[in-house]
Write a structure and sequence with these properties.
The model has no long low-confidence stretch (mean pLDDT 85). The chain has one domain. Helix 2 packs across helix 3 and helix 3 runs antiparallel to helix 4. It is mostly helical. A two-stranded parallel ribbon has the order 1-2. InterPro entries: Chaperone_Skp, Skp_dom_sf.
Amino acid sequence: MKKICLLAVCFVFLFQAVAFAETKIAVFDLQKMITQSQYGQELKAKMDAKFQARDKQLLKEREAIANLKKQIESKAFDEKTMQDKVMELRRRGRDWNEDVNVYQKALKAEQAKLVTPISPVAEKVIKEFCVSNGYTVLFDKKTPGLSFIADGLDVTDQLVKALNKAKQAGK
């Protein structure tokens, strides 16, 4: 019985240091980290180059639809022409909505494809940052349940610098 009590007391003293170890917590914004880094700037340039023409085309079509709507609202047509214009407006609006949906899906797919190679690098940078700075826990700001973040806990800018260093080092 004495051995068991002595063993229990030893465990209490051994694990007391672990129980009172300093816990260092911080938050970061993953989206901001990637978009402000050199990786993110390259990604944005590639996305702009690929989708800029289509974006302009959709904008031009939206303006044409708005002009058609103004024409209809002016009521400067006879009844038959007005019905034709209304039908054209509905058709063009429906087509435009479908085009926008297809465009957004293509945009998201391309973005996911371009972000995929960045993710492992970002994870490695985050782990190295936490280890080298003694952080126990690092949360993304968009994590559900975080209702308050004190000033000074956001380390996003430091992570952007670390990610840029990793990019320059060719990791």
